[in-house]
Amino acid sequence: MLTPFVRSDAVGTILAEVFLHPDQEFTVTELARRTGVSQPVVHKEVSRLIAAEVLSDRREGNNRLVRVNQLHRLYSPAAEIIEATYGPVPVLSELLTGMDGVTEAFIYGSWAARRMGESGGPPRDVDVLVVGEMPVDVMLDVQQTARDRLGTDVNVHRVTSQVWANRDSDEFLSQVSSRPLIRLAGEGNIDE
Known about the structure:
Elements: H1 9-19, H2 28-35, H3 39-51, E1 55-60, E2 63-68, H4 75-85, H5 88-96, E3 102-108, H6 110-115, E4 125-132, H7 136-150, E5 153-159, H8 161-165, H9 171-178, E6 182-185
Parallel strand pairs: 4-5
Antiparallel strand pairs: 1-2, 3-4, 3-6
């Protein structure tokens, strides 16, 4: 786990979505889609977080809309913990999804390993692999924006789609693809 202060990985991903978008409301279905957590689990955890007043809700027709409760006395310290631990996926996905020149994007390295359950110390940075033809200046802007929003070093490495397709012939990329990867943008299996 990325932080011992969050009771489960599912809760961490749910909290990241709501804490990193404090002015947005989400349905349970939308949170399930955005986090990749099953709808029954999201429903259970959202209900628990509403009871603890970490989230607030309102009804609009049949939809239950939830958002983070910014008036909760632990909002600020919790936001810092969530942003530092579970924030990279929603922040980087938002920055990279649909961007011209990005075919696929992944988090790799120690952050991805911790997120996938490997034990070890807390990651000191977030390593990102962008596959495609993203211009260098855009890549540097994404890197800086992510650093500013997450408060940690973000290192973006870019490779062309052709180089990624032949990654087994590149020692660095072969090692990256053999370790945990967290998909940020693009679709498909990394072994395609």
